[in-house]
């Protein structure tokens, strides 16, 4: 059974609404709720915690309907992007806040505060005024404050977004360790897919108040639904075509924009299919014979974008446009420029089936 | 060039107005002899007036703050039908001339069923010392509510949500998070309310009657003495009111900066 389960949840806030959201978070999992700004991630999180009353639908915790429960009864810890540390309390006061509210005495509170502070490496900060802390320190204090009360689920609302890249990466590493040590279930709202790759065991994608897809990161990485999910997961290449040779002893063949593409997916003859190939799975070569992969597409390079150590190459073959990602040093060794001919080469196993006959297929290990 | 003229024009208006204001205040402060001021201030009437003003104002501020914190928090945190209407209603006394507000209160506590009900319970508000407090509360509350409302609005409700996620009820999060965080704004509201109570004239005059040595607060002392032609007493009460207001404004500015920063 899922630890947290949301069923047909609709929330109307006047200028924004959540529409019929359903998903679940299994116990012990780290679920990332991924979406762009304004997608409704935070509204969903705050509805789960009890800040908003849904128009319809239910929120279940361990199978119990908690939709009408006040936030204090739900036992959900929350950490916001902007920390929300209480400015009138020092670090120790902030961390001990929930325990004091439970009526515990100092001799019970202090060891728990020390333990969580040690786990988050903030034991030296306990007597500090929160105004003197850096962003990363404040975020660790906020995490300690939420974790020390041992909530059922830890909710993170863009918890790492306000931090610089290095601090964010350190916090991700620390978060992964702490979650492993404590064994807590986490629901992490984010717009950064790096959080998904670094931490998530499950991921759900939300856009414009609607849940688009959920599953394991691998599911959404390999088989994102076309459109927003593919875009936010960085899928890069979504290809539509018709199966002209179904998968049997040999690979299936899809005819897309006049190009024959081989796929090891289970394809049915005559069906219309949507496939994805990730840019990093495409190799680029001047000579097709150097790499022994089944798909070798001759393309004309139309655009080259260099971004530090990585380079994105856009190639066109008739109406088919593909994007490949290579290392910048690899690109330099190709000695190509826009207008040049080269080959985009990828394995049949890299071409993943997303939709067949325009009917949604079950992509993910359905964890709801 | 046009920028310089514009800046000079703005600066000129600012200097002219603030200069005239300071001149007006100084002309009152510097007018009486020091001995005259001391004698007037230590007179029985003035001491009674100062005591009554301070006593009623402190009671009124306590009542105003209860109202301001309650209504300010309701307006800042809850959405409900009639929210904007409530805001307008509590702001109304600010727009009223004090005399009109006093007349409204006179009717409410005198002839209206509410006033008659109070009288039947043995509470006679009109023309009594109670009425000074009533007048001060209704005059000062809108200002305090504004400041408290602004203060609570400036505090993210997510602080309270964090507190509630940590096990606090609504009351617990209010007392342990909202009120301590709003401390500066609440003090500022109390200071403003105190200044308004001390200076409340029109409403007190209509509702309490302005009776010498009975419902005589500092502004009433000024009014009565200027009516009798006793300029020294009038000026002394005016100077005391100026110093009280000045102190209140300084405290308000310091606390308000604390809130904003």
Q: In percent terms, what proportion of residues of chain A is strand?
A: 35-45%
Across the major sheet of chain A, the strand order is 6-7-8-3-9-10
> Rg of chain A, please?
24 Å
CATH superfamily caption of the largest domain in chain A: P-loop containing nucleotide triphosphate hydrolases
Content-based structural category of chain A:
alpha+beta
Reported CATH architecture of the largest domain in chain A: 3-Layer(aba) Sandwich
Report the CATH superfamily of the largest domain in chain B: MetI-like
Low-confidence stretches of chain A: 358-368
* Unreliable stretches covering 5 or more consecutive residues of chain B: none
* CATH fold type of the largest domain in chain A: Rossmann fold
Mind telling me which CATH architecture of the largest domain in chain B this is?
Orthogonal Bundle
The CATH top-level class label of the largest domain in chain A: Alpha Beta
Q: What is the β-strand count of chain A?
A: 21
Shape descriptor of chain A reads elongated
Q: In sequence order, what are the helices and strands of chain B, one letter per element?
A: HHHHHHHHHHHHH
Mean pLDDT of chain B: 91
Main pleated sheet of chain A: 6 strands, mixed
List how many beta strands of chain B DSSP finds: 0
């Amino acid at each position: 059974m899922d630890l947290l389960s949301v069923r047909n949840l609709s929330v109307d806030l006047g200028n924004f609404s959540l529409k019929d959201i359903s998903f679940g978070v299994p116990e012990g999992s780290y679920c990332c709720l991924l979406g762009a700004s304004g997608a409704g991630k935070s509204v969903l999180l705050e509805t789960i915690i009890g800040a908003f009353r849904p128009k319809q639908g239910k929120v279940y915790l361990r199978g119990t309907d908690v939709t009408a429960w006040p936030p204090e009864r739900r036992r959900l810890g929350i950490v916001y992007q902007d920390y929300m540390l209480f400015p009138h309390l020092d670090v120790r006061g902030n961390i001990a806040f929930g325990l004091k509210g439970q009526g515990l005495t100092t001799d019970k509170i202090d060891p728990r505060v020390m333990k969580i502070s040690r786990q988050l490496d903030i034991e030296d900060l306990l007597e500090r005024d929160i105004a003197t802390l850096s962003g990363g320190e404040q975020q660790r204090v906020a995490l300690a404050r939420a974790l020390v009360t041992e909530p059922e689920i830890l909710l993170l609302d863009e918890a790492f977004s306000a931090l610089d890249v290095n601090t964010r990466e350190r916090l991700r590493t620390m978060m992964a360790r702490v979650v492993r040590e404590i064994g807590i279930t986490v629901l992490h709202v984010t717009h950064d897919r790096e959080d998904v790759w670094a931490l998530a065991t499950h991921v759900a994608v939300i856009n414009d108040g609607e849940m688009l897809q959920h599953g394991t990161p691998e599911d959404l990485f390999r088989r994102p639904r076309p459109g927003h999910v593919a875009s936010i997961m960085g899928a890069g290449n979504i290809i539509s075509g018709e199966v002209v040779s179904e998968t049997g002893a040999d690979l299936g063949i899809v005819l897309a924009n006049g190009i024959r593409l081989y796929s090891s997916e289970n394809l049915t003859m005559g069906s219309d299919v949507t496939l994805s190939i990730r840019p990093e799975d495409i190799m680029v070569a001047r000579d097709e014979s150097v790499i022994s992969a089944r798909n070798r597409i001759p393309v004309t390079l139309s655009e080259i974008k260099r971004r530090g150590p990585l380079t994105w190459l856009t190639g066109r073959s008739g109406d088919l446009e593909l994007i490949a990602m290579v290392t910048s040093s690899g690109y330099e060794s190709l000695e190509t420029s826009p207008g040049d001919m080269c080959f985009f080469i990828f394995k049949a196993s890299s071409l993943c089936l997303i939709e067949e006959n325009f009917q949604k297929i079950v992509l993910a290990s359905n964890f709801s | 060039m046009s920028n310089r003229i514009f800046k000079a024009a703005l600066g000129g208006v600012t200097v002219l107005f603030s200069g005239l204001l300071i001149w007006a205040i100084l002309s009152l402060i510097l007018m009486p002899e020091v001995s005259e001021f001391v004698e007037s201030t230590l007179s029985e009437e003035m001491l009674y007036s100062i005591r009554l003003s301070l006593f009623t104002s402190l009671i009124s501020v306590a009542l105003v703050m209860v109202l301001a914190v309650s209504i300010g928090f309701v307006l800042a945190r809850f959405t409900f039908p009639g929210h904007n209407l409530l805001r307008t209603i509590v702001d109304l006394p600010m727009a009223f001339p004090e005399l009109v507000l006093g007349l409204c209160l006179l009717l409410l506590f005198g002839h209206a069923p509410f006033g008659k009900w109070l009288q039947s319970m043995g509470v006679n508000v009109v023309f009594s010392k109670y009425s000074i407090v009533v007048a001060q509360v209704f005059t000062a509350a809108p200002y305090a509510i504004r400041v408290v409302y602004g203060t609570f609005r400036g505090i993210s409700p997510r602080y309270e949500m964090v507190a509630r996620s940590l096990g606090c009820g609504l009351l617990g999060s209010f007392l342990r998070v909202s009120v301590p965080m709003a401390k500066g704004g609440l003090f500022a509201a109390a200071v403003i309310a105190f200044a308004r109570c001390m200076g409340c004239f029109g409403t007190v005059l209509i509702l309490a009657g302005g009776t010498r040595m009975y419902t005589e607060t500092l502004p009433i002392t000024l009014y009565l003495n200027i009516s009798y032609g006793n300029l020294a007493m009038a000026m002394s009460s005016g100077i005391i009111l100026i110093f009280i207001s000045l102190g209140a404004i300084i405290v308000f500015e310091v606390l308000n900066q604390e809130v904003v920063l």
